[in-house]
Amino acid sequence: MQTHQPAAELAVRRRGRSDRVAPPRPSPAVEAGFALDRDTLLYLQRTAGNTTVAGLVLQATGSGIKAPPKKAPGRASKPATKPRPAVKPSKASGKTAKPAKAKAPAGPSQEELDKQARLGSTGALAGWALAGEANATERKVRGMWRIPLDAIPGGNADPAARDDTAESAADRAIAIVPAFLGRAPKSVEVLLHLHGFGIGYRTQQGKKPQGKFEWSGAGEGQVRDVAVDRMEGQLEESGRAMVGILPQGDLTSGFGKNFDSNAYITAVFDKLVTLKIWDAAPSSSGVVLSGHSGAGSTLASMLAPQLIRKGKDPEAAAPSNLREVVLFDSINSAHELESVTAWVIQSLNADLAAMKSMKQDGRLTYLETSMRLRGYHTHLYDTKYKALKATIDQWFVDNRKALGGKGSPVPARMKANYVIKDADKSETKYESHERMVAHGDRMLDALSALPPAEEQVAFMNRVLAAHIAQGAASFKQQGKEENPDLDDAQLADVPGTGVKMRSDAAAKAGELLVAANSDRKDVRLAAQVDLKAAQEKLAAEPEESPESPGVPQTSPKPAAAKIPAPKKKAEDLIPALEADVLLTDGLSAASGYRGRAHQDRLWKSYFRDKYYPATRKMRAALPGGVHGDEAVTRMVSYIAGKIAPPGYSNHQAGVAIDFWQVRVKGHDIHNDTNADAIGLWKTTWFWAWLNQHAGEYGFLDFNKEPWHWALGRHG
Does residue 531 contact residue 704 with C-beta atoms inside 8 Å? Predict the structure, then answer.
């Protein structure tokens, strides 16, 4: 279809071009036959400004919009600018001071330069017609391009007028595109997120939202996805090549009578190509379907089309390459709960059927990339989400045997793919419902449930290579070479542990553990005697009065007695290390020799499960973003004190051992590099014993990991 295109637009297609003449500012007069179609309005808004466009619309439509009020008669209007004062002579010299030189106009911002570089010389600008600043054109939000898109078919067609925004809701969407994708991405993931009741992603006008379903919370001149949901920030911190698509719905989360998600995603991709944001539409490697609050009606129709009630529910089709469903307080009714439950049971049964002929390792591999569900709720939605969680729990009880039975890791691994997370204690009010997507970075948490994406794996491999290079440089300075793998003839068991080390190290570690366990038993016997004496002492002491601590109680308690202080514990009356040894049932080892392949697997699992998530925000703030060169350098520094690179670990040399404490139930001590776990380790009797006696057996400590000791080496 041919659309009206002003002649001036043929001369210049975008801002920022220095080699073409800027178009003339359009006259505010409307000529006969002048077409005020969408493209013309959008063009004029960008080149002539909102005031000119508003005047043209008023003349062309005779809409009755009120003109600005005239000033009261008799009051002279103030000059637009104050007259320039005469130049006065300088007091010091008597000479006439030279007028200050005018500052050179500021150059384009970095955002504008980035935009120009991305769009290229034939690019076009995105944006909504007659929109506030936030939606007038694309802009960069941290490392993501936020792109308002107009004329997107297949979605909501209702303008959904409100008192607090002049922006229409019809045929519009927001696209969030990672800047690192450039113009020629081959494949991307998609997040299709549907908003709840209200303003959606339109710009709020005025300090207070007004109209039906008034809550917005974005603030004057702000938009929900940036100021409330923090969608751009969470997508960036995920580190995934994922494009966010946020359809603009009506006031009650309506997204069209027949919302076909596949067709809608295609329409958005095509629009991004038309706007020269991409040279060609990439393929979609998978879709995350997400929704908040009132979006539950459309989500229910997508997930369980067989349960759609004619005349009551919207017609909607789920994406064909769905990988995850994320529900934010979006189970609103018994029907929606029935629909979501039906989809969950269908997905669980499909997983079970797919794994039927697989062995355990094959099942675990399958579950790495199978369907995911994440459900998040505030206390306002407790009942329905807890009902869904109970259904999921019961399914796993009923199918435990088919999944491998007791002792198999398959049930737990599969259940980790279908998670309903409870509300925080503070989430009891309506505002917490509106802010829940950003609360605790829940969208980021949901995306973290997906298997690692290609770009994340590439980043991990760059960090690993840099860490190995660092290890090689350190060894070279010490005159050492990379650790070779040891063969079976060079290894021996550490007695009583099932852990192997280099033969001489295994023998010394065995002697150490025998001595430590012997001393532990002796100290424990003495601690038991001291504990019994403390218990007898406490039993003999008279009860203390709540009103007068330390004074024997000789009179009846008053009617309104104060709450007494907590009773003393006998364990508090004996030395702390004696109290700890009573909680220590045995001493053993968790790890010894690890070949290069083992160390490589362990390094990658720690990177994926611990180090990568823990550093997201830090990396997002660096030059180059979450996967840039600076991020690689910072990650190597972060990891260096936590695990050695393959080829340079004392475990691979066969001389390191990770000790393990067997503890009384409820008093576990974990070998974990978080500060709390390390601090707890260093309060134990075994830690004190190692510091006093490990050197007698040739073992030296690694202070950053109190459980890690090596024969003849620190760290």
Answer: no
